[in-house]
Amino acid sequence: MPDIIEFPDRPYVGVRRTITMTSFGLVADRIGELIAWLGERGVALAGAPFLRYDSIDLAADRLVVEAGVPVPHPVEGAGDVHAATLPAGRYAVAHHHGHPDRLAGTIESLLAWAGQEGLAWDLTEKDGAEHWGCRLERYLSDPRDHPDPATWDIDLEFRLA
Is 0.90 topped by the overall pTM? Predict the structure, then answer.
């Protein structure tokens, strides 16, 4: 059963890419770089790294996705690293244990649950694409400690309208 959690604004640094389902590595593989970038600047992480889905157009196989790392306070970006804030609000949160390739079932369950509960997403649709106010996959497991993705813990956090 998902939870509804109220989150405050959360600053982060990230990189954004337009990708396809087969080119996810172009953004997901940047998380390690972001962590190193923060380390070079003496900035601690303020939570688990994440992927943020800004827009999803499955028919066109086009997604706009950010790799992000929460920080304790706003940090100035540089190059293609930008500073931003995850918006405050109520989020539906569901937990997934296992390989990220198997997230589809957890996502479907979260979406169905929200529909049954009469909840609306912070989401607009335009020209066949979903544009999310804030839709996250937070990667709670450190791959250095858990090299097998089948053992990873991932939280989905989808902002409610």
Answer: yes
